Please model this.
Amino acid sequence: MEKIQELTGMDAGTISKYAHILAVAFVMFGVGASYITMLVGVAYPTFQSFLALESDGADDDKQWLTYWVCFGVFNIVDQFAGFILAWIPFYYFLKLIFLVALFHPATRGAEKMYTWYILPIMEKYEKQIEEVEKKVSDSINDAVHNAEDMARKVTGREKDE
Model:
């Protein structure tokens, strides 16, 4: 950063401001839009999450955990509907604005999204989710036991008891 400051004669804040403007312009014109959007949606929140883990208070932990829940839900929707959403003009620009609104301290959008949308849906379908979770867990355990039995038969080893 110091070399860039020396070459340009600008302070770090000005360089950062121009870098943000350039990144937003790239996203708007579709140049590396998916990479820049994912970088902003993951890199900064990851750094802040590390800081939150090392801090004494629990408020920032909750904020960043809530962000990651909302980010995960958004990514699930994006993965399944992304091929449709990508046809929306300036989709990555809108996605970038949405992700920044989720984590920005002034908006605390993740807390609002979680409280207004995700939590009520989770509460409504909690029993069904638990049932599915149990079925999946049981299926995985059965598969692991079957794989262990097959491995014992193939290797000729008896069950350790």
